[in-house]
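Page 47, continued from p. 46.
Same chain as before, 88 aa.
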Amino acid sequence: MDFKNFDPASVYDSSIINAGPDSRGFYFIAIRHDTTPMIAAGCRWLPLAEAYAHWSNRHPSKPALHAECLAKLDLISTIAKARDWSIT
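Result:
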């Protein structure tokens, strides 16, 4: 699935969190999974902890984009916890 061109209006489900697009147009989407939210963004498909590790090291020359990606993950984490999703 091409998550850059994802249409968020086409899907609503309590097992999906749409954190919206970053400034490049890549949507950050979380899918409820057994042990942790799975994050889809651009060509990435990662468990939440691995997503944090991945984006913690990305875009060091673009501080605003770097902060934006981490903020998307923080939003997903906050909503997932509020929905009582398992997070490991």
